[in-house]
């Protein structure tokens, strides 16, 4: 059984439909300048999600089988004014659909909200930085290796923008879309330029009901025009399906938005009005380390919970400049929730067992409440000071893994805000990640709620006891361990407490059932 299937597509030298490649592919290019060759195979059954702990390069997938035309994007709801935003950055926020609001209210009734300064906070989740437009093209040959030639190649691409049907919102937009479709009120904090790509990104976010708070600081008028442009990720595929990447960040030793020297007042206000601030390692490619640290400090002062996902950048930050090392440690120690793959957790702790790695990160943390470890096709784990919870993945037919990790994080945020039991939170997160994997591409193609509910109802999980028994045997645990399973007793170790999936799913469905057909977040 192949665990991570890809669909094979033939490529021509014409423009290819867009695929919002994960930003990690861009980072690989920045760090290693390596050409990635994607294997091909036919589709097969994958033992669920979240995102693979160590994803391999994948062939370009067709995101838009029916090409989009450059027409105005429809708004799903009537806009509401967003306070505290400069005129340029004022975008429509939207009220939750009534059915979603009912489900969220039901969650609050069943499980009281988590502790924290949530009074007066109208935004559930705010993301910091990592806003970009992904442009995926099929080209006759990959960019040349010499730095100067690659830069000229990129400038030629940017000079003649391809049709909008090849564009997609990337980066933290994936997380915001997935969270909004669960009924959370979301905003994005980052820089979006005035050019056509920026306008496209703003229109897409507005159409999805995502508020945008800009980080433009007019005090630095000396920065060149290119420094203020929307960040683009050019994903290039040659006829042999080899990938190359171009971004202006490739040609600078400083962050892409180096003109942002301090956290703007509007950004601070938005953080104060948010219940969760999410930051990942890719923010370090756009912002100076002290700007990121100041955003975390601002959140702590405001009583806003901090979520941090170091991602593939975590390892390089660990061995980066002194400022990067300090900011990474600051983020790891002061975050309320840490999200990592098992490989990333090992790289930060030198502990191969993910449970032990999670416990080590908890020990190092000052405010850390949850450490969530993504185990790829095996499932996911949540480590707290008093317990360890495990949830096997859902068995699905995989179409595309892009955006699964972002979708997974959206559900973790939902569970945190509504104080759901750990196993319930992981189950929902696995389902949302798996729902995204059954579609094609990320951006606006991330999971819709109806697909999440379908997977929950089917409850087809990978109920293999081997993984959890091995992890338990390889760790010295003295706390409570709970595992989601199809039955109360199914041959697992006596050291594990079994949580029947039927009871977990019943509670989750009762929260969201009203949304299935009436919710306007569906496609």
Automatic annotation (TrEMBL):
Upper taxonomic lineage: Eukaryota, Viridiplantae, Streptophyta, Embryophyta, Tracheophyta
Domain Carbohydrate kinase PfkB per the UniProt entry, residue ranges: 165-443
Alphabetical list of Pfam families matching this protein: PfkB
Source organism per UniProt: Oryza meyeriana var. granulata
Official protein name in the record: Carbohydrate kinase PfkB domain-containing protein
């Amino acid at each position: 059984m192949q665990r991570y299937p890809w669909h094979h597509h033939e490529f021509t030298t014409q423009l290819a439909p867009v695929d919002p490649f994960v930003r990690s592919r861009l980072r690989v290019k920045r760090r290693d300048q390596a050409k990635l060759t994607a294997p091909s195979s036919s589709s097969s059954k994958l033992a669920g999600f979240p995102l693979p702990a160590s994803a391999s390069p994948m062939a370009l997938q067709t995101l838009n089988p029916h090409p989009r035309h450059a027409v105005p994007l429809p708004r799903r709801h009537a806009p509401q004014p967003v306070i505290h935003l400069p005129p340029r950055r004022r975008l429509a926020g939207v009220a939750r659909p009534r059915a979603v609001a009912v489900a969220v209210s039901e969650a609050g009734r069943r499980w009281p909200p988590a502790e924290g300064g949530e009074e007066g906070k109208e935004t559930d989740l705010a993301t910091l930085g990592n806003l970009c437009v992904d442009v995926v093209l099929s080209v006759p040959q990959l960019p040349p290796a010499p730095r100067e030639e690659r830069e000229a190649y990129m400038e030629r691409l940017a000079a003649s923008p391809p049709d909008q049907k090849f564009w997609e919102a990337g980066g933290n937009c994936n997380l915001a879309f997935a969270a909004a479709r669960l009924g959370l009120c979301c905003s994005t904090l980052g820089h979006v330029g005035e050019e056509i790509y920026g306008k496209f990104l703003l229109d897409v976010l507005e159409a999805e009901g995502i508020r945008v708070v800009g980080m433009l600081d007019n005090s630095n008028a000396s920065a060149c025009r290119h420094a203020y442009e929307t960040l683009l990720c050019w994903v290039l595929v040659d006829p042999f399906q080899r990938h190359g990447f171009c971004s202006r960040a490739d040609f600078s030793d400083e962050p892409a938005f180096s003109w942002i020297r301090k956290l703007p007042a509007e950004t601070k206000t938005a953080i104060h009005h948010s219940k969760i601030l999410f930051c990942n390692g890719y923010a370090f490619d756009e912002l100076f380390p002290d700007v990121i640290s100041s955003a975390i400090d601002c959140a702590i002062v405001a009583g806003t919970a901090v979520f941090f996902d170091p991602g593939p950048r975590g390892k390089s930050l660990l061995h980066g400049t002194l400022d990067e090392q300090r900011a990474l440690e600051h983020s790891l120690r002061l975050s309320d929730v840490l999200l990592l793959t098992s490989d990333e957790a090992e790289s930060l702790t030198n502990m191969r067992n993910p449970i032990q790695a999670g416990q080590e990160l908890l020990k190092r943390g000052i405010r850390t409440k949850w450490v969530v470890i993504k185990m790829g096709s095996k499932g996911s784990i949540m480590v707290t000071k008093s317990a360890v919870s495990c949830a096997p993945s859902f068995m699905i037919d995989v179409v595309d893994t892009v955006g699964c990790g972002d979708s997974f994080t959206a559900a973790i945020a939902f569970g945190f805000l509504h104080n759901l039991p750990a196993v319930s939170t992981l189950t929902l997160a696995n389902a949302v990640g798996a729902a995204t994997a059954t579609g094609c591409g990320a951006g606006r193609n991330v999971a819709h709620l109806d697909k999440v509910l379908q997977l929950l109802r089917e409850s087809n999980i990978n109920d293999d006891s081997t993984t959890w028994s091995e992890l338990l045997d390889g760790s010295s645990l003295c706390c409570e361990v709970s595992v989601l399973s199809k039955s109360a007793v199914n041959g697992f170790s006596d050291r594990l407490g079994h949580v029947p999936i039927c009871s977990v799913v019943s509670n989750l469905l009762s929260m969201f059932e009203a949304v299935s057909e009436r919710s306007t977040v569906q496609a």
